[in-house]
């Protein structure tokens, strides 16, 4: 398998014994809030704040459940909001 390595010079290949790159799995989470006005935030459900809290919680999964000597990553790489 090949993996992008922007820190390597163009046209080079890096090798190492054992695992070197991770596979990727993808997921979508859809949140629906209730729109409102900035002057009356208590009348709205701000799904943006909920999305931020979910992203922060996802980043704790590795630290809470994987041995620090084992390779693992959970990353939120995109958030699309608003319509």
Chain-wise SSE layout:
Layout: H1 47-65
Key terms:
1 helix, elongated, mainly alpha, single chain
Order of helices and strands: H
Which outline best applies? elongated
Count the strands? 0
User: Rg, please?
Assistant: 19 Å
In terms of DSSP E residues, the strand content is under 5%
Major beta-sheet overview: none
Count of helical regions: 1
Low-confidence stretches: none
Structural class by helix and strand composition? mainly alpha
Mean pLDDT: 85
Helix content: 10-25%
The span between the termini is 38 Å
Q: Could you describe the 3D structure shown?
A:
With 83 residues, the protein is mainly alpha-helical. It is 23% helix and 0% strand. It contains 1 helix and no strands. It has one helix at residues 47-65.
Summarize the structure.
By secondary structure, this protein is an all-alpha fold. The protein has one helix at residues 47-65.
């Amino acid at each position: 398998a090949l993996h992008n390595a922007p820190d390597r010079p163009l046209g080079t290949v890096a090798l190492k014994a054992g695992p070197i790159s991770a596979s990727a799995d993808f997921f979508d989470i859809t949140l629906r809030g209730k729109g409102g006005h900035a002057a009356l935030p208590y009348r709205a459900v701000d799904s943006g704040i909920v999305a931020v809290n979910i992203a922060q919680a996802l980043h704790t999964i590795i630290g809470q459940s994987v041995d620090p000597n084992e390779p693992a990553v959970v990353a939120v790489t995109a958030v699309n909001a608003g319509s």
